[in-house]
Design brief:
Blueprint (H helix, E strand, L loop, with lengths): L3 H7 L14 E3 L3 E6 L3 E6 L2 E4 L2 E5 L3 H15 L8 E6 L2 E5 L2 E2 L2 E8 L8 H6 L4 E2 L2 E2 L9 E7 L2 E2 L11 H6 L5 H24 L2 E12 L5 E4 L8 E5 H9 L10 H9 L13 H19 L10 H11 L7
Antiparallel strand pairs: 1-2, 2-3, 3-7, 4-5, 6-7, 8-14, 9-12, 9-13, 9-14, 10-11, 14-15, 14-16
Amino acid sequence: MLSAEQILSVIPCTLDKVDLPGMTVSRGKVRDNYRLSHKRRLLITTDRLSAFDRVLGQVPYKGQVLNQLTAWWFEQTRDIVQNHVISVPDPNVTLAHEVTALPVEVVVRGYISGVTSTSLWTRYTAGEREIYGVTFPDGLRKNEPLPEPLITPTSKEIEGHDQRLTPREVVENGWVDAATWYKIESLAIRLFKRGAELSAQAGLILVDTKYEFGLDKQGEVMLIDEIHTPDSSRFWLQESYTQRFEAGEEPENFDKELVRLSYVQHGYVGEGEPPPMSQELIVATSQRYQSVYERLTAQPFAPAEYPAQERIVQNLAQVGLIKAR
């Protein structure tokens, strides 16, 4: 993991966006997406950090961590389901098959927890006992494990917040056909259990996560986007979980929650223009992401060269994905 001084020195160089010569880009909150020939896409993971449905700033090496950690997880789960990766031609770039993305996010939860409007604990404390089509008993405690991982799907809204769905609604309302959805449910549980197993070996608890799936040109299910990263998942530190749970304290988070909690503590909860990230928070977040990477992969984080734009263009040109300038 890099020192605070090393991270501070590259803050002015963080990767906000990538412009590839002669190509049209579609920018998401975190990734820049370029369409190539032969039904392929270039997915460039930037250093942009999103929370509260807004981009708050850039964090050094965040994009590299997400891209390389996702590639690692795809290899660890390739025996469960095929994924869209063709190659990783640069630390921030994935060359992927173009697929038809399904309009549902598959959220899997291993614990009754959370503070957002779609979380189990929020609904439970509001008095609901049937949540996402599952009946819960009285007397549950926040942050306790569920008997089995639970699938809690949501819609993928272009504007506004995602909407809660039950698995039955996914099929009955035509979001996904029955055969495909039943296959996805099975795959999602297997992926979550594999993720929880490997996370435990790294001293982490995989609390919940989201998966995105698509269909390839043969109509086969394919895992896309990212998997088991600090952006798409919540992790807790395993070593302190039991003691803190029994004491009624919140578990030690080990993911992007660090950023959310910092903003909330400073009075920002998502309304209006967010204040810029402090340098202290930027450094802590970068180190958090690097630490997650090192724990899970058991490999030291090797920072790629900044500025990233020039490096990415050069690497893509070398393998013939774009024309050299």
